[in-house]
Amino acid sequence: MPKRVDHEQRRQEITQALWRIAMTEGVAAATLRRVAAEAGVSMNLVQYYFTTKDQLLRYGLQRVIEVAVERMRDEMAEFTGSGNPRAVLRACLLGMLPVDETAKLTSTIYTAYLSYAVHDPEIKVMVQSIAKSLATQLAPLAESAQDADVDPLAETASLVAMVAGLATQILIETYTPEEAIALVDYRLDRLFAVRAV
Length: 197
Fold this sequence. Notes:
Layout: H1 7-25, H2 32-39, H3 43-49, H4 53-77, H5 85-95, H6 101-117, H7 121-127, H8 130-138, H9 152-171, H10 177-191, H11 193-196
Helix pairs in contact: 1-2, 1-4, 1-6, 2-3, 4-5, 4-6, 5-10, 6-7, 8-9, 9-10
């Protein structure tokens, strides 16, 4: 009887090979031939699942986004429904930071894709709306902030942008994870000052 092939597992193995190359040499270095060699499979097998490099790169980016979103949801799950918008917002923001090995992996890969997106229109389209979309989803959490003059969308947009920058700064060791978390808490304490009293 022929051996059953788990096609999704095979796609994941190929994608992980792509990610390893992206982490060490950048997304541009990830040709189909290089990915095949890294995965320890034939070029024909890679092309069976991904007929072009662009298709492979898009799939790899989609998967890293899914992994990151799942991580943020896991971080937020403990506080969702708690009635504490600051705690939910904090959990989401900290879920974006590379504070453990899994998050460091996804942040490094995502950062490699962001660099590649500067010159690749298709990848650019895939990533350019993520920050604004996340800020829009988080804006209701900032509505209970310190005063009526606070613009919830502007607050969450600036927090998301700050955390995205901090993620990169952790990767290059400008800030430690602890320092980055302290900066997030500083901003949240100011935003929710009256509520915290």
